[in-house]
């Protein structure tokens, strides 16, 4: 397929009938460049292709030009059309989609669009396709609608290629869908297959038993079908959660540094709380110890001098401690000692008592000095180790104060770092991750149970089929029907084997093409591969192993380009089996077939200048035709790589700086 031209009338911002835009079809200069500023109508041009071919409507205000629509008066009508001229399978096709808009009173209403397809035979004879369905089928045969996103590429709207249903698209592109449909229609395991319908036509000898077996067989086949559907659903769910697991792992990895900062902040806050308590307790111990021994400690120099003075005094008597002269006078007055002795009859005892009296205060200062000395000695003893205790308390308090100050400084620094990157609820992500892991485990267990049930059900079906076969009577009708069944089963095996081998070759070819193109486009150290569902996966070398990684931004754009360009590459090749091949010793090959163009709007919006250069250098050598619709700023990086392949250049201009009136003019 090669696009020769496109003409627009009143479509989007292209007001009035535009001059046809003729694209380069030169094999050597196969690139057409269309330059346009932001909001000039670049994306609208790509949408014109999609609307013209498939009737897809993407402009927010519909297909009709807003100025034309606004100027319509009651009772008037306007027409929008897109006409595309292309070559496919050596035939020139003219595809024209038209939509009439009429304004009855206040509102402008659009009628259903009409589509006309004409083609010119190599002989020059014109042929018209009449019915709408035949027109749509012809367009879909030229380029399947499911593939339109890949060959009409909108860089700013195109999401990750791995999120799209590429299985149907690739199978359609490579001609595998017809084989797949035929295989499914013949599949003996399906209750809706041709084989199952033939089995229902068999007439069995024992009607009651045969009906019972047929009913059980039908139920078993339906149950197996339900198990297979649930298995496929569980696989899709498992694939989804596996991709989600990778996304969450990547997200957790990206936020690991933030999580560590947040954990560190929590640890510091706990340390500050503990140190604050320690500082408070240390201060209380200092106050308590100070109150207990402060007086003796601080008067200790005076006490030492007092003890020295008492020791040097000659008045240091040995009177009875705590005894005073008034107590002795009382004893003498009552004439009886505290020991019970009668002092009237014992003059010697009276003399001794009087001697002791003289040693007591206030008559004798020596006793007082003696008592003071004992008190001072007690103060002196109690002061031993006091300074060390108070010093240790103070050291402990100061140590905790310094640690507290340090932790508060750490908290300030960590909080500032977190403020720079923002708070992240990693706990929620971790919870989601654990739920995803649990879901994967549940689905794995479910699939194992379903596989066991599938095996048991297949054994049941086999047993019922054997019973069924033993009851088949040897009538002519049954022989004929059984032959049909045998043919259908043989055809299924042939289609199934052929499909499996051809799909394997398609996957291998696509994998090789995408891997090669990605290696040439990407300047980093990543590799890509295609899985069984035609999904593209990215891998990085970690140690001695290859680990799958997520992608974002420019890396995703390059991956998308590699995949799309790989599709374009293998679209020129198609798995086909040589005539006369029995299938046992196949000589399958990928033979050159129809080529496809690549129309790209804002293709470089998410890539850096190195990747823009690489992509621009590689794509024209792979695609048969390249149409690039791009802004000047991105074109500056691509031009040097692609200028030798440029055959046509156009510029989109806003008429009178209007965003609703643009024209495409040929440039130089």
What is the topology?
Layout lengths: L1 E10 L2 E4 L3 E2 L8 E6 L5 H13 L11 H6 L5 E12 L2 E13 L4 E3 L3 E7 L5 E4 L2 H11 L5 H4 E3 L11 H8 L2 H11 L7 H8 L5 H48 L1 H43 L1 H13 L12 H10 L12 H12 L6 H18 L3 H36 L4 H46 L4 H46 L5 E4 L5 E7 L2 E5 L3 H19 L1 E4 L12 E4 L4 E5 L7 H14 L2 E6 L1 H11 L3 E9 L7 E5 L2
Parallel strand pairs: 4-17, 4-18, 10-16, 16-17
Antiparallel strand pairs: 1-2, 1-3, 1-5, 5-6, 6-7, 6-8, 8-9, 11-12, 12-13, 14-15, 18-19
How is this structure best summarized?
By secondary structure, the chain is an alpha+beta fold. 56% of the residues lie in helices and 17% in strands.
Report on this model:
With 668 residues, the chain is of the alpha+beta class. The chain has three domains: 2-143 and 596-666, P-loop containing nucleotide triphosphate hydrolases (Rossmann fold, 3-Layer(aba) Sandwich); 204-255 and 427-472; 264-421. The protein contains 19 helices and 19 strands. The chain has helices at 42-54, 66-71, 132-142, 148-151, 166-173, 176-186, 194-201, 207-254, 256-298, 300-312, 325-334, 347-358, 365-382, 386-421, 426-471, 476-521, 553-571, 609-622, 632-642; strands at residues 2-11, 14-17, 21-22, 31-36, 77-88, 91-103, 108-110, 114-120, 126-129, 152-154, 527-530, 536-542, 545-549, 573-576, 589-592, 597-601, 625-630, 646-654, 662-666. A hairpin with a 5-residue loop joins strand 8 and strand 9 (126-129). The protein is elongated, with a radius of gyration of 50 Å. The model is unreliable at 575-592 (pLDDT under 50).
